[in-house]
Amino acid sequence: QVQLVESGGDLVQAGDSLTLSCVVSGGTFSTYGMAWFRQAPGKERQFVAAHSWTNGNAFYAESVKGRFTISRDNVKKAIYLQMNSLKPEDTAVYFCAAEADYDGGFQYSKTFTYDYWGQGTQVTVSS
Predict the structure, then answer these.
(1) What's the pLDDT at 98?
(2) Mean pLDDT across the chain, nearest whole number?
(3) What's the CA gap between 76 and 48, in Å, rounded?
(4) Has residue 87 got a pLDDT over 90?
(5) How far is 11 from 122, CA to CA, in rounded Å?
(6) How far apart (Å, rounded) are the C-alpha atoms in residues 113 and 92?
(7) What is the pLDDT of residue 31?
């Protein structure tokens, strides 16, 4: 019923900028908590950024704070991740996630919070 499709991943150089997009089909979207996670080969899925619909707050992992910005467009039913000053350690598959059934708190950095996931888009940062 709900589908998330990421795009925008690319091979870039350290210091470059890149914007990822995630388009959501189905559901109400505007009431979804949304997030970006990333996963490098052989490593755990890692929280990157989240946006709460309840109060509009944005949250970021310490490793990306000040460099990445999450935003949403309720008309296009999309979220974005603007990534600046990219580093080689940002290399990963980036996944979009949606919490479609808010029932209390927003544990934004936890994978179990999210009900739907995209298939990911590859970001590679060379040094």
Answers:
(1) 94
(2) 94
(3) 22
(4) yes
(5) 8
(6) 21
(7) 79
Which residue in the block uniquely carries the two structure tokens 């980036």? 94
Do 103 and 112 touch, CB atoms closer than 8 A? no
Mean pLDDT confidence for 25-38: 88
Q: What is the pLDDT of residues 32-51, one digit of tens each?
A: 899 999 999 999 999 999 99
Question: 3-state SS string over the chain?
Answer: CCEEEEECCCEEECCCCEEEEEEEECCCCCCCEEEEEEECCCCCCEEEEEECCCCCCEEECCCCCCCEEEEEECCCCEEEEEECCCCHHHCEEEEEEEECCCCCCCCCCCHHHCCEECCCEEEEEEC
- Torsion angle of the four alpha carbons 87, 65, 53, 98, in this order, in degrees rounded to the nearest 10: 30
Judge whether 32 and 23 are in contact, CB under 8 Å: no
CB contact set of 87 (below 8 Å; sequence gap of 6+): 14, 125
CB 74 within 8 A of CB 106: no
